[in-house]
Amino acid sequence: MSDESRPETSSTQTGSTLYIIAFLVLQVGLPVSYYLGDEIYDERFAWRMFSTVRLTECSSKAREFERGGNIRPLELVHHLQIAWINLIERNRDEVVRRFMRRRCRQADIERVELRTICLTESGDKSVHDWRLNCQSGDIQRKDETLTSP
Fold first, then answer.
1. S-S: 84 plus which of 59, 80, 129, 138, CB 3.0-4.6 Å?
2. Domain of 31?
3. Which residues have CB under 8 Å from 122's CB, separation 6+?
4. What is the Cα–Cα distance from 35 to 50, expressed in whole angstroms?
């Protein structure tokens, strides 16, 4: 077969091929970034069929510390829609931070604390504590995982 009989590749075909390759890299790259990252509860870009995170049961409790020493428990269902509560229970960083900052805008609130406890299907327990100092705006997060024996 001579070089003259080989069809030439058009720029349209090359562009299409590059688009398909970029699309496939994106489809594989985003889920892989989840598996290599630190945020195990944020499954927006994960291959969920391989995930056991949805089997994890989490619950969150919040409380506010008023100036003067009163501690007031917060019922999340009275302050947030269930979709936002689910995101808080999945430790979505930005959702937790915005909720806590919004609570600090209430009069006489000195500090807001949130604790989320999660139990995996294997019996492991993780505790996620958040504390926001309303005066300084500093947020502290402490995560602890307890494995079952």
1. 80
2. 10-49
3. 148
4. 11
Residue 3 falls within a domain, yes or no? Answer: no
Q: Tell whether 135 and 63 lie within a shared domain.
A: yes
Residue 38 lies in a domain: yes
Look up the pTM and report it. Answer: 0.65
User: In this structure, is residue 113 part of a structural domain?
Assistant: yes
Residue 118, token pair as written in the block: 């999660």
Task: With residue 91 as reference, give the H or E element that holds it.
Answer: none
For 114, how many CA atoms within 13 A lie in the half-sphere containing its CB? 28
For residue 74, the model assigns a pLDDT of: 93
Answer for the pair 112, 104: CB distance below 8 angstroms, yes or no. yes
Query: With left for phi above 0 and alpha for psi between -120 and 50, is residue 4 left, alpha or beta?
Result: alpha
